């Protein structure tokens, strides 16, 4: 197969993982077979590094993940942040102050290479425990390492209204993304996206965009899907993703990525 990809980049939640958050045996098997065929596999996710640890046994030798919408490169097996792309506290404080003026009930959290910093009013995903080393304190008191991803959520504004207001307030100072968590604005430093991080990682491997297949389901995947040589949307993807994708595969609950890779490997024989 002359046009076979050299690298597969895939989102996790809603794309590679089933709706219950699990990686099916079928998908695990085809990922291993894909790498055995000489095709690089990299996970590209909005999850912070700490949310990859629970998948360590499942991802096994797949090793590297691009996390936090491009903010971190994470060695899953070693549980180590290899590199990070964040913004300085002064920029974060300016954005926080402006968002508080626009949305007084907004609460914040910050994902950093060393862990989570969160305000007491910030709502946590009940499916993931707050780590013991997390810092609970006002976001204005941030210290230490730069922020990889700033999280913001309103207690009262409808989800879409808050996200629109957050994007208007932040402007071009940072990149606001949405990965599917209701009303959660995920804010990265300007220029930090899944696509930018994937482009850097692919460049390190000597792989150009035209040799990359990327799979996703939510608006934060759009830059990556546009950048890749072939952008795939799963059937359950957000309409914005389906509109820009080159191809559509079956849904995450139907192991759509696995079905696509199985077909690819058969055609390569």
UniProtKB/TrEMBL annotation:
<protein>
    <submittedName>
        <fullName>Cof-type HAD-IIB family hydrolase</fullName>
    </submittedName>
</protein>
<dbReference type="GO" id="GO:0016787">
    <property type="term" value="F:hydrolase activity"/>
</dbReference>
<dbReference type="InterPro" id="IPR006379">
    <property type="entry name" value="HAD-SF_hydro_IIB"/>
</dbReference>
<dbReference type="InterPro" id="IPR023214">
    <property type="entry name" value="HAD_sf"/>
</dbReference>
<dbReference type="InterPro" id="IPR036412">
    <property type="entry name" value="HAD-like_sf"/>
</dbReference>
<dbReference type="Pfam" id="PF08282">
    <property type="entry name" value="Hydrolase_3"/>
</dbReference>
<dbReference type="InterPro" id="IPR000150">
    <property type="entry name" value="Cof"/>
</dbReference>
<keyword id="KW-0378">Hydrolase</keyword>
């Amino acid at each position: 197969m002359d046009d076979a990809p050299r690298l597969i980049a895939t989102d996790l939640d809603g794309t590679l993982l089933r709706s219950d958050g699990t990686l099916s045996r079928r998908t695990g098997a085809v990922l291993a077979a894909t790498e055995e065929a000489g095709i690089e596999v990299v996970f590209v996710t909005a999850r912070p590094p700490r949310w990859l640890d629970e998948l360590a046994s499942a991802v096994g030798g797949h090793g590297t993940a691009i996390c936090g919408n491009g903010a971190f490169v994470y060695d899953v097996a070693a549980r180590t942040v290899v590199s990070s792309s964040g913004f300085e506290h002064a920029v974060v404080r300016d954005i926080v102050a402006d968002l508080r003026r626009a949305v007084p009930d907004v609460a914040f959290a910050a994902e950093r290479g060393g862990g989570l910093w969160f305000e007491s009013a910030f709502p946590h995903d009940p499916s993931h425990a707050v780590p013991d080393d997390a810092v609970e304190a006002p976001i204005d008191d941030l210290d230490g390492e730069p922020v990889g991803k700033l999280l913001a959520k309103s207690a009262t504004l409808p989800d879409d209204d808050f996200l629109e207001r957050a994007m208007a307030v932040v402007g071009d100072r940072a990149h606001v993304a949405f990965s599917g968590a209701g009303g959660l604005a995920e804010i990265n430093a300007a220029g930090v996206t899944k696509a930018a991080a994937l482009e850097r990682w692919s460049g390190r491997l000597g792989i150009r965009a035209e040799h990359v297949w990327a799979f996703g389901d939510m608006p934060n995947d759009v830059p990556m899907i546009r950048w890749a040589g072939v952008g795939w949307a799963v059937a359950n993807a957000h309409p914005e993703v389906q509109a820009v994708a080159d191809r559509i595969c079956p849904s995450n609950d139907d192991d759509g990525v696995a079905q696509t890779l199985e077909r690819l490997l058969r055609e390569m024989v």
